[in-house]
Amino acid sequence: MVDISRLAAKAGKSEAELLTEKILDFSQNELNNTDCLALARLLRENPSLWALSLSWNSIGDEGMKELAPAIAKCSSLKALNLNNNNEIGDDGIMTLADVLPAASLTELRLYDCGLTDTAVKYIAEALPTAPLSKLKLGKNKFGDSGIMALAEALPTSSMTELDLSSNGHITEKGWKALAAQIPSMRSLSLLDLRGNGNRVDEGGARMFDEGMKEELALAITTNPSLEIMWPTVGLGDYMQGSGPTCNCM
Q1: Last residue of a domain, one of 82, 105, 128
Q2: Among 61, 93, 128, 140, which residue has the least CB neighbours within 10 Å?
Q3: What is the pTM of this model?
Q4: Cβ distance 136 to 110 under 8 Å?
Q5: In terms of domains, do 86 and 125 share one?
Q6: 30 and 65 together in one domain
Q7: Please, which residues bridge with residue 190 across strands?
């Protein structure tokens, strides 16, 4: 049997408590791929686990190979925080994305994980059949092809809240593709675009300019339930309210 004593020590709980807790936070605990064996056991044997935070650790592709099958089988798990695990590569995200349709996850956080276009395409492919309703993809490395794949998948997904903040590799082409699909995104209620307003391309042109804001603002008039958190302050003419807030795990 895989030893979970290290996890218990990190959490400051007994092993028995680990297997009954509803919310577990292992953020900033120097967890690595080897620890994922114990995490997988925890996921398999804790029937009450609702939310698991693994942010700011060193989980990579090999760790995801251990975690993903256990995530798929943990029917109680609704929220998973993997923020700031930048050792997860395309293979690790593919492994995770493959199980999303079978998992019970409704919230997935992948902020600042170094996600590429390829990784985001894997996630996009899973969205139409996955129960995910909240997805955090801010501050990553994907560009136009990644956001275009997301834009195509979102209208047939269950997504209600999407974070695309601080993604500096997306150009006008990608934002236009997103704007074109907004009228069809009937389930989406919150779109976070903060941190994209000051990005410039190699020629010095803004990658998200006033014209792009206007185009998105026009698009959301066809989707009145959608609220956008804009890249810069002072855009009252374009804002459809302040939007709900997402509480971090």
Answers
A1: 105
A2: 128
A3: 0.91
A4: yes
A5: no
A6: yes
A7: 161, 227
